[in-house]
Amino acid sequence: MERIDLLRCLANNMLHLILMPTEACNFRCTYCYEDFRYARMEPAVRRGVKAFLARRAADLNWLEVSWFGGEPLLAMDVIEDISSHVLELQRQFPLLHYTGEITTNAYSLSTSRFERLLDLGVSRYQISFDGPQEWHDRKRVLAGGGGTFDRIWKNVLAMRAVPREFHVLVRLHVDQENHEALPAFIRQYAEAFGQDERFELFIRRLVCLGGPNDATLPVFDEETGDAVVHSLSRYAKELGVRHVLEQHPQLCYATRGNSYLVRANGRLNKCTVALEHPNNQVGRLREDGLLDLDSTKMHQWMRGLWTGSRDELECPMKGYADPAPTTWVAPPNVRLALAPPPASA
Questions:
Q1: Per-residue model confidence as pLDDT tens digits over 121-175
Q2: What is 133-171 written as a DSSP string?
Q3: Is 102 helix (H, G, I), strand (E, B) or coil?
């Protein structure tokens, strides 16, 4: 790994926070791995986030805030509160470069809300689809039942009319059931967004991440799935669509010593997957903005920086905090071995 990557992973003047303003969600996607246990970020945690940022701001040159959930737009007031605080810090410290991004299902992303998020510095968006309406509505369903495609598509279409700078990554999931219908979605996408450089298509095969339906998900094996993704990529290229292939990053955010996930209850994790795995619980954010960290666990997440292992750099979760089998629940307050026990344990 190049030296500059190591510096970025450890630099005190860079900070990446993934914030979960709520872990509730208005969807029940068939492949979801979350359990929605914390309805919204507690007031003391909000104060802790703002205090932590205030403590760090004077020494920061780069701050990236990523909103995640659940569905983060269900707690828009939390996003407004903390983002407004960041903008005030940016006014106080002009050398602070701030980027805001959000992973959202876009069901509640009205034009007025979108413009408000842009005002708050949230300029990067990741929004998922599972193909044309017929397939999408089978997999990305409302918590109370019912399809979601029409409303999401209309909201994303409306983003085009906003004459401001932003970036939208439209994430398209590929599996054994929907892959033959995806060229139709790519054509639909090309007609709507093909000429707008603010939109980019991300073609990704569906994978199991520890959800209750993992055993029945129609996922491809890696080799076959990659072949299907590359075939869809060639088709997108023929249509002139700006797109990104599924690919492993050279360096996962969870490897970085200056990247944290702040749960709605103040718990600190490193990865957005396997949220309840004990090895993915590295500390807690205090109300005064100080961090209580488990240095042993932090070093395990960062181990690829010392070993140089490509696998450990690309996904430090593997072999350390793997998603548990769906029929097995980790007992509370028990420190696990590097891999969870089998389902029969």
A1: 999 999 999 999 999 999 999 999 999 999 999 999 999 999 999 999 999 999 9
A2: HHHHHHHS-BTTS---HHHHHHHHHHHTTS-S--EEEEE
A3: strand
Handedness of CA 65, 22, 283, 320 (dihedral sign): negative
| pTM for the predicted model, two decimal places | 0.91
Q: Name residue 81's amino acid.
A: D
Place of tokens 């990529």: 233
SS3 247: coil
| DSSP letter (8 states) at residue 341 | P
Could you tell me which residues are beta bridge partners of residue 16?
A: 64, 259
The alpha carbon dihedral of 203, 68, 284, 11 has a sign of: positive
Residue length, the chain? 345
Residue 329 has pLDDT above 80, yes or no: no
| 8 A C-beta contact, residue 183 and residue 233 | no
Classified by CATH at the fold level, domain 3-245 comes out as TIM Barrel (3.20.20)
Q: How far is CA 12 from the centre of its chain?
A: 23
- Distance, CA of 219 to chain centre: 20
The helices-and-strands tally (H runs, E runs) of the chain is 11, 11
Helices 149-159 and 111-119: crossing angle, nearest 10°? 50
Coil vs helix vs strand at 212: coil
In 3-state terms, what secondary structure has residue 99?
strand
Reading the block at residue 17, the tokens are 């926070």
Which amino acid belongs to residue 53? L
Q: How many alpha carbons lie under 13 Å from residue 278 in its C-beta half-sphere?
A: 13
Mean pLDDT lowest for which of 45-49, 191-195, 263-267, 284-288? Answer: 191-195
Distance CA 339, CA 118 (A): 41
Rounded Cα gap, residues 26 and 117, in angstroms: 20
The angle subtended at Cα 210 by Cα 275 and Cα 208, nearest 5°, is: 130
Tell me how many degrees the CA angle 97-282-317 measures, rounded to the nearest 5: 85
